[in-house]
């Protein structure tokens, strides 16, 4: 009266194999496995995307090295005219 016994599970398995056939049943299980693999890959892609965004936000929020704002002496001053070329040709 309780649950299924081993004998009941064997009969159920044989009926499923007869109904779907061995080849079709294995093809369906292959499709289920592919679906699970795709699902897991999608989850890991989402995790990688979240990690990349968090790393980018951390990098933008606190730069690894301070920004150098000292003037570069090699850059020409836009206010003063460039020196005249006094070399003979």
UniProtKB/TrEMBL annotation:
Keywords: Cell inner membrane, Cell membrane, Membrane, Protein transport, Translocation, Transmembrane, Transmembrane helix, Transport. It holds the Pfam family TatA_B_E. Residues 79-89 have a biased composition (Pro residues). Its main location: membrane. It is found in: Cell membrane. Belongs to the TatA/E family. This is Sec-independent protein translocase protein TatA. It comes from Sphingomonas rosea. The gene is tatA.
């Amino acid at each position: 009266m309780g649950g299924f016994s081993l004998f009941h599970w064997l009969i159920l398995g044989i009926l499923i194999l007869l109904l779907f056939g061995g080849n079709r049943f294995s093809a369906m299980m292959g499709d289920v496995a592919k679906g699970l693999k795709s699902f897991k890959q999608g989850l890991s892609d989402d995790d990688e995307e979240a990690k990349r965004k968090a790393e980018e936000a951390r990098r933008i929020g606190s730069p690894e090295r301070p920004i150098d704002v000292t003037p570069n002496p090699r850059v020409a001053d836009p206010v003063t005219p460039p020196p005249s070329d006094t070399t003979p040709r």
